[in-house]
């Protein structure tokens, strides 16, 4: 088990959640991916190792892992999509409309926006840019 996977295992323990083979495999699957995945994609990938795994099981685990900030979510093509949370540093994402590949954007425009909106307090934000990656163009 990788060190990163062990950190997520510890987070599950901290939140008093069961550490199941399915849940750990799901986290590992997201660690291997560089893009957002739909619940259906997760089910297809998980079904290879856990034949007959239900869509409800997948969806409950996605919801739980998002709730404890192991996963982050976005709406992409009208469907909820998930990826492993980025916790090492603050950044934003470019997401390819075709293949779903995700690239990190290190620049954060929130300070500029805060200056323009000097009468508000920004408490949280998320910036996502969409388009086509080099391969899909």
From TrEMBL:
Q: Which family does it belong to?
A: Belongs to the Fur family.
Q: List cellular component terms (GO).
A: cytoplasm
Keyword DNA-binding listed? The answer is: yes
- Kindly give the Gene3D superfamilies that the UniProt entry links to this protein: 3.30.1490.190, Winged helix-like DNA-binding domain superfamily/Winged helix DNA-binding domain
Q: What is this protein called?
A: Ferric uptake regulation protein
GO terms of biological process kind: negative regulation of DNA-templated transcription; regulation of secondary metabolite biosynthetic process
Subcellular localization, as worded in the UniProt entry:
Cytoplasm
Query: What is the stated purpose of this protein?
Result: Acts as a global negative controlling element, employing Fe(2+) as a cofactor to bind the operator of the repressed genes.
Q: Which organism is it from?
A: Salinicoccus halodurans
